[in-house]
Write a structure and sequence with these properties.
Length: about 190
């Protein structure tokens, strides 16, 4: 009887852990889906020339931010295992490797949106089928581990990248208002 109770206790604990992991994955996917809407909504009604305008010389323009968001999506694609060609690493890379330039021949805002939207369903499907155990796998040498916030796992990196996307989409939302545009729609 004691053996059966111990087995049952272990089974309940294992199932609650599995449900927690699945819930985390479901939440990360919901965020990923919402960010897809927000990316497109933040750029709605903006012309290519408007996305090249700076509000202030110390700030990035919308086109650079949109390209940088696509560049970060390449990171999420890599995380998911999707094989996506990184088109614009040399002009939109993060971590101060690139910066917004004036009078530079960037891809059009329509090309940037197309790259995002072409990539989204492929990456989403890969994220959806990512094994639950993969979310808890530690990434060797992850800079997130020393943050005091994250443990440096695949799930942590995905959460961090979702937050990164939210931050920059919010910047685009503010810049579009400064250009006299209506607020971006949530849905």
């Amino acid at each position: 009887m004691v053996f059966n109770l111990l087995w049952l206790w272990d089974f309940v604990n294992l199932m609650s852990l599995k449900i927690k992991i699945m819930s985390s994955k479901k939440q990360l996917l919901a965020q990923f889906d919402l960010l897809n809407h927000w990316f497109n909504n933040s750029l709605e009604g903006l012309s290519d020339s408007e996305t090249n305008q700076r509000i202030d010389q110390q700030m990035n323009h919308i086109k650079y931010l949109a390209g940088h968001l696509v560049n970060a999506q390449y990171g999420i694609a890599d995380l998911s295992g999707a094989k996506i060609q990184h088109k614009w690493d040399d002009i939109f890379a993060g971590l101060s490797k690139t910066k917004a330039l004036d009078n530079f021949n960037y891809p059009s805002i329509e090309e940037i949106k197309k790259e995002w939207n072409d990539m989204y369903p492929i990456v989403r499907e890969r994220l959806k089928t990512l094994p639950d155990e993969e979310l808890d796998r530690e990434i060797p040498g992850s800079s997130l581990k020393g943050s005091g916030i994250f443990d440096g796992t695949v799930g942590d990196l995905w959460a961090f990248l979702n937050e990164h996307q939210m931050y920059h989409i919010g910047q685009i939302g503010i810049l579009r208002r400064a250009l006299g545009k209506a607020p971006m729609k949530l849905f």
